[in-house]
Amino acid sequence: MENPLLELGANGLPRFDAVRPEHVESGMRALLAELGQAVETLERDVAPTWDGVVDPLERIGDLLATRWSVVGHALGVKNSPALRAAHEAVQSDVVLFGLRLAQSRPIYEALVALEKSPEFSRLDAAQRRIVSLLVRDARLAGVGLEGAELARFQTIATELAEHQTAFSNHVLDATKAFALVLRERGEVEGLPASALEQAAVSARDAGVSNADAEHGPWRLTLEMPVLVPALQHLRRRDLRERLYRANLVRASSGESDN
């Protein structure tokens, strides 16, 4: 299917500029279906060799990670209700697929067999390390669990992923909710020209159409490109303290309380 989430640009990188919220659910479901078939094929044909288990396993994992990380990155830098909803719609399926891959007994047994085989000693140090970590990760992912214990493990893993997303969204919401608007030139004394311009742009984005770097008003936020220069250069200690404390207690009260 044609979906920019599943494609790479001419430079080999994800097409961040083309991915929209409406591409997330359809793209990830198509990818999970494709990778599910790949896992079934690997389990059927798996062999205790590097080419027979590690290489195809890494390819499957990389395809999932590179596409899903595009969604996660977008949540961090271009968050929106539509994107959150799309992420939430498929997050549990992505988590369960990752567990399905990590908990595969045929794949795990092939990795253990590889670790005990003569071929293991012929691998280079990095390859041996990869094999050992894959065996360890499978055990930590519950490959040895069955029945109710396995179901409980998967429930906890899904809940943990949901909490992690909610935590990040709360921090982002709290960051966006704070602004310190300064109107007197003396209040921004010490800020370099680039920081003044950034603060004026922030004010214009908030609806103050006549804000400029020279005359203000200047809107200081908790976004890193604004916050860091303010904490480094503002002469007013009390203003630096207000920004510092606001940043420190983000997402600790109200609807965004973590």
Compact summary:
The protein is mostly helical and 258 residues long.
Features of this protein?
about 260 residues, 10 helices, elongated, two-stranded antiparallel sheet, about 0% strand
Number of helices: 10
Mean pLDDT: 94
Give a short account of the largest sheet: 2 strands, antiparallel
> Roughly what percent helix?
55-70%
Unreliable segments of 5+ consecutive residues: none
Structural class: mainly alpha
Secondary-structure element series? HHHHHHHEHEHH
Topology of this structure?
Layout: H1 21-45, H2 50-77, H3 81-102, H4 105-116, H5 118-122, H6 125-140, H7 147-177, E1 180-182, H8 193-205, E2 218-220, H9 224-233, H10 237-248
Antiparallel strand pairs: 1-2
Helix pairs in contact: 1-2, 1-3, 2-3, 2-4, 3-7, 4-6, 9-10
Describe this structure in words.
The protein has 258 residues and is an all-alpha fold. 67% of the residues lie in helices and 2% in strands. The chain contains ten helices and two strands. The chain has helices at 21-45, 50-77, 81-102, 105-116, 118-122, 125-140, 147-177, 193-205, 224-233, 237-248, and strands spanning 180-182, 218-220. Helix 1 packs antiparallel against helix 2 (50-77). The two termini are 39 Å apart. The mean pLDDT is 94.
